[in-house]
Amino acid sequence: MGTKIAIIGNAAGGKSTLARAWSRVHGIPLLVIDDVQWKPNWTAGDEAEVLAAEAKLVAESDRWIIDGFGPWPLIESRFERAETIVFIDYPVWVHYYMAAERQIKSALGQDMHEPAGCRFAEVTKLLFEIIWRVHEVHRPRIIELLKTYHASGKVLTIESPEALDTFAINDCNLGTDWRTEPAAQPATSNQQRAPQA
Q1: Which residues are bridge partners to 66 per DSSP?
Q2: Least C-beta-crowded within 10 Å: which of 36, 68, 160, 191?
Q3: What is the spatial distance between Cα 25 and Cα 194, in angstroms, rounded to a whole number?
Q4: Rounded CA gap, 94 and 159, in Å?
């Protein structure tokens, strides 16, 4: 499996969780497209920022993970450069179910790795509309584009959360607790401590 990795698929399928774990465990630089394309209060960012962020990562490292969509021409060029393309392609109802779980966790204040200044709980209706649009409009385009790369062996389609777990544990060597991020370590006596108020 290569170290230039594109991860794509519908919302709430585990793309970002996989990308963060893969990056953390193997020390591969990560770009989460949503962190660039969404500004506080879910305001759409400038497309040029997304292009620049991806160009910078690719120019600075021969190892990278890029998670998400972005502008269509960028997806095409990302797939061309990638050594591994992971397409998370569950039935649409699974994405809806996982999105509902995520929305509840966000509403309860749990850390969901939301873009800065954004809360998933604020955009539930929009999220469900996006899931449908991605399934109906973008998914067929992705499937068609991926046909170009199937013969190269660099495309892996994951069709269930269970298959994603198997891939993460067995193929990516992320461990059985790959979905759980390590807790922040308390400062030791050798580390700087923040002043107490």
Answers
A1: 6, 31
A2: 191
A3: 28
A4: 10
Candidates 17, 176, 171; CA nearest to 84 is 171
Residue-wise pLDDT tens digits, 156-187:
999 999 999 999 999 999 989 888 876 554 44
- Token representation of residue 154: 């660099």
Distance in angstroms (rounded) separating the CA atoms of residues 183 and 91: 32
Q: Is the pTM of this model over 0.90?
A: no
Q: What is the identity of the amino acid at 140?
A: P
Q: Tokens 């269970």 appear where?
A: 162
Give me the domains of the chain, ranges plus CATH numbers: 4-171 (3.40.50.300)
pLDDT digits (tens, 9 = 90+) for 115-147: 777 667 677 888 899 999 999 999 999 999 999
Using alpha carbons only, what angle is made at residue 54 by residues 48 and 57, rounded to the nearest 5 degrees? 140
C-alpha span between 97 and 114 (Å, rounded) = 18
Q: What is the DSSP string of the chain?
A: --SEEEEEESTTSSHHHHHHHHHHHHT--EEEHHHHHEEGGGEE--HHHHHHHHHHHHHH-SSEEEES--SHHHHHHHHHH-SEEEEE---HHHHHHHHHHHHHHHHTT----PPTT--GGGGHHHHHHHHHHIIIIIHHHHHHHHTTTGGGT-EEEE-SHHHHHHIIIIIS---TTTTSPPPPPPPPTTS--PPP-
Which residues are CB-contacts of 183 (< 8 A; sequence separation ≥ 6)? none
